[in-house]
């Protein structure tokens, strides 16, 4: 099928008129992806009993939006498929077709098919080179649309539905192009149940004020009508008002009807609160699509400014006291504005974790069907924001945790009945800010971890697992490489490749994993992450004549080394005594092959660090202080560098590597 390109012609003077055709096409693909994601979420809500008139209308709008854009760009296969969505959903919202499980499953499959077709048209990486065969799916959709109508609603219900129709005045304009107006009129003629649109005498041509007016009779809400009309006409050029009040007080262009003036007839029953224009309705959620590359450039420039400010502050510190005092106020103001600019730039990359959580209702649904377990997923805190780059990197670890919970954590229905639990297992996915971190918690009401099975599994693998281990230490055994308590391998999980990788990947992000177990009642996995990877609080240290930065989140404490505190095991492994425990020592100068610093004091300082449940003392020569640093990625130019997580520029202009504490501590296990 030809993928021809014939973009719509926007009204003269509109914002879209300045866009290049390729930009319009890319914008369509981005918006279509948003509509399809919303489409899937609505279907999953409907499956849980949340189907209603509003849901059916919202599903219809999603399908219609994708269809309109696909038709404009000549994507005939997408247009045909979404047209069948419309036909089926139109019957649902008119009460002629029940939104039962087979229908919802069919629409979910259809959404996947549309998503795949759009990826192929866009040329997305990994998309198949040839168009998928949708003939079977189209036939199933047509058959579902042609199924016998549902039993007629009782007379009282029908009368109630008719009573919700309202007489409205729709004003459009001023317009420079009749094409958008014709498309708007055609939409009401094509879509059954949307309403009846009748031109008023001046609509053959604009009235003196440049507006086109229509009498509109519809049972749809104001937001639904304005959203559908907004597909063809700029939202700022649309107005809705009750017919009874329109003559007395017509609102200004781009605004909704105001409260009727004294003496005006009241709004008809069912009209609800004063209607808003689409522009006003979207004001709280206005967004601007910007390529991530541009945001990264902005953050990089803000980071360079932070570095320059730090260098300026260090230079001022070398001046005479009188000069320092004269510049102190200006420097403080610069620091304040620089930090505010950096925070504002970072906030642009912060997006709600709802974009991450949205994939899991569908996954849990499919895992439940595959494992034969009725599963429910409850989501909390999905408005919590996290750096976009962090969200992309946490997807795989969190996906593995969800699959483990569904496969291993939740018991089969028969087992749950025996234990007095509901047959349906429940998972909770929650996000919340705690200080400068975000905590993502996955909890279930399943069987939890078994202390006996963990100890037996560890011993079978030759791990040191005495009965004297505390519960917390036993739970940590699950993070041993290749460890699994699965009774059998399935295509969901249980291959012995998992929790160790999860912990390692989260540790690479500067995060930690905590387990809270209630045997027989469920398991909670708490993932704690920094809010962003672009900036971090660090501790600068000197090793020989080199400077390094330790992530502050990994630093526990520091102390000066005094005689008698060092010891060794087997003449090789070095230990240092800290209160009542002995910690392994990593001498960074030897480990990193750093030469001695001529003339510098080499008093040893111990920095206690912790990562992936392991603690050790790093031997350095001097603590240079705590500071916020801008993280630079080295892999783009140098590839992976052992023991190094990135680099930053210090206030004196020197480049300082950022040490990968988790990788350093893994050196102890070799």
Keywords:
single chain; Alpha-Beta Plaits; 5 domains; 6-stranded mixed sheet; 22 helices; globular
In short:
The chain has 670 residues and is of the alpha+beta class.
The biggest beta sheet reads: 6 strands, mixed
- The strand order across the widest sheet is 14-18-19-17-16-15
The CATH topology of the largest domain comes to Heat Shock Protein 90
User: What's the CATH class of the largest domain, please?
Assistant: Alpha Beta
Number of helices: 22
Q: What is the 3D shape?
A: globular
Q: What fraction of the residues are assigned to beta strands by DSSP?
A: 15-25%
* CATH architecture term of the largest domain: 2-Layer Sandwich
What number is the mean pLDDT?
78
Annotation, overall tally of beta strands = 22
Query: What does the radius of gyration come to?
Result: 32 Å
- Helicity range: 40-55%
Describe this structure in words.
This protein is α+β, with helices and mostly antiparallel strands. The chain has five domains: 15-151, Four Helix Bundle (Hemerythrin (Met), subunit A) (Up-down Bundle), CATH 1.20.120.160; 155-244, 2-Layer Sandwich (Alpha-Beta Plaits), CATH 3.30.70; 292-352; 354-530, 2-Layer Sandwich (Heat Shock Protein 90); 535-669, SH3 type barrels (Roll), CATH 2.30.30. Helix content is 41%, strand content 21%. The chain contains 22 helices and 22 strands. A six-stranded mixed beta sheet has the order 14-18-19-17-16-15. The protein has a five-stranded mixed beta sheet with strand order 6-8-9-11-10, with helices on one face. The chain has a four-stranded antiparallel beta sheet with strand order 2-3-1-4. Helix 15 (388-409) runs antiparallel to helix 19. 32% of the residues are buried. Mean pLDDT is 78; it is low at 1-19, 152-161, 246-272 and 274-285.
